[in-house]
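Posted in: Structural Biology > Protein-Ligand Complexes

Title: Requesting predicted complex, magnesium ion in pocket

I'd be grateful if someone could produce the 3D structure tokens for the following input. Sequence and ligand are given below.
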Amino acid sequence: MSDEIPAPLLELDDAHRQMAEIVHPVSGVVTVNLADALGHVMAETVIAPYALPPFDNTGVDGFAFHHSDCENGRLKLVGQSLAGEPLMATLPPGCAVHIATGAVLPSGADTVAMQEYARLEGNDVFIDPIPPQGANIRRAGFDIRQGETAITTAHRLRPQDIALLGALGLTSVKVVRPLRIGVLATGTELQEVGARLENGQIIDTNSLMLKQLLFGWPIDVTMLGILPDDRAATDAMLLKAAADCDLLISTGGVSVGRRDYIRDAVQALGKVHFWKLALRPGRPVMFGEIGGCLILGLPGNPVSVLVTFYLVGMPLLQALWGMTPSLPPAFKVPLAETVRKEKHLRSFPRARLEFRHSTWQAVPFHDQSSNLFTSLVRSDGMLDLPTGLTEITAGTQVSFRPFSSGHF
Ligand code: AMP
Ligand code: MG
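-- Reply #1 --
Done. Output follows.
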């Protein structure tokens, strides 16, 4: 492996810093029905209008009573409090009511005995053992207090977030308007999915994969198709996309090949913020803009596209949504095999997780060439190996970042 450094390469962390400085979060807020808000990014902070739970209740099926009246464990059954059908009266001393999970704790009661520790004989309830005072009670506001922040702005809504907002009585939320993103493939060799291929042609799989990677996010995706390697056509396409999109993501044509025109065209029509990162795979990544439209030029090989989408594309989207750019989460796993890497590059070899010798280990794919679909398909994620190292020996704990369909 050669360790030649042809030009200074930008570190990934510096690229994130630059993006955070350059990118302004999109303005524009829309209101969506709560039930349709999945994946959207909050444009407001929601304060709890009331507490959750809204009333004191119990977490078990059993008997509610007042602890100080229950010295000998014998109580008189006087009624019931069921979910949605609370007991309206105050519990008299020495008495108990049947209570169901989620039912309102009657006034006068302060403890609930589980059904399993109670015996009913006629109207007499015998409790053994007597639980401590306050047992099995879920206090009003214990989950969230009235006036407490429930969900903050710039948070991407997951199913559980929507459930919380619904519990708080909301029916709609203000979210960031969908981003307009154009996806463009460059390469004279490319054909649409399903085409009959002639000599030297291949299918444009990058557009297809990017469309999947963007799925589930608040994005209006425009598929711009395939651009041949032609400078005039490239300029025309970039100008047209820049007029319609917040962000254009292109693949291919961004390296140093004779017919790689993306970088030169962006430079001529707008501005290149950075080009070439200290990464493997994905070194040629370019970030620029034309007339207010951001341009992310990803490399052409499919492995590089997936990896750089996670490493640069996702953080860029986060910045556009007003979030802090971040990488997919990492956890440490021991390496199953020794790996070698270039010293000056931060490297992200694809690997699968395997349970070996009673522990999970990361097994790097045997060939890390960036054209191999199988290296992605047979892997669970990527290792994150720092610059400065050339060899990481088997058994070393390394960072592993799982592939996911969006990292929050
Ligand atoms: P490039 O950087 O344009 O030279 O592309 C690098 C490699 O990725 C070449 O082998 C291309 O054929 C391949 N490639 C480029 N674009 C795509 C695409 N959209 N789908 C699949 N492979 C591509
Ligand atoms: Mg090309």
